[in-house]
Design goal:
By secondary structure, this protein is of the alpha/beta class. It has helices at 6-27, 61-77, 119-124, 143-146, 181-191, and strands at 29-38, 48-51, 81-82, 91-103, 147-159, 165-175, 203-208. Helix 2 (61-77) packs across helix 5 (181-191). Residues 1-25 and 113-141 have low confidence and may be disordered.
Amino acid sequence: MFKFTRRMALVTLSAGALLGLSGCAALNTVTADAQSFGSWPAGRQAGSFAFERLPSQQLNEQQQAELEGAARAALEKAGFTSAADTKSADVLVSIGVRVSRSDNAPWDDPLWWRWNGNYFSWRYGPAWRPHFSRYGYPYPIDPMMERRYDREVALLLRDRKSNEPLYEARASNDGTTVGSLSLIGALFEAAMADFPQTRPQPHPVSVQLGGGR
């Protein structure tokens, strides 16, 4: 007869705790498609940086300062240090953030929406319930499938003295929410993940919210 001992209980609890921790790590992981371009000079150190704002970015200083704060952490992780001002910085950094919303058309078939499984699991599974619109076509009414947000960040690093562009990086992902400032920071970190090397082809990069890769 099977006998459940105290030792087995401890082992089971330990294994459960590890699974819980790995699950939390997975939930806090952000995956983005990253690209980087340019020709960072061989042997050149990251050096100091300062942000440079476009005239339109100066209209909302508080929002821009928050976005720059999210990008600053990614730049410092890549080896850069904050300069006192633009006149003393080795590199000037311009940033951009874009979040756009896309809604599914009422005739969209879930078979072709974010393909991730076989035909029957998408079309007839529990996550999809038919609902007929005024056009007479069935479409999914799951709120998670009705709306998507595309999020993208970009950085441009220029040599302050020569004004020459040295490095350009961007990262993007999507989801069912606009996202938070920490998510934007994670996208900046993903964008700078390959520095000083460049990889123009889109490739996945995973980082943790508020943490390292």
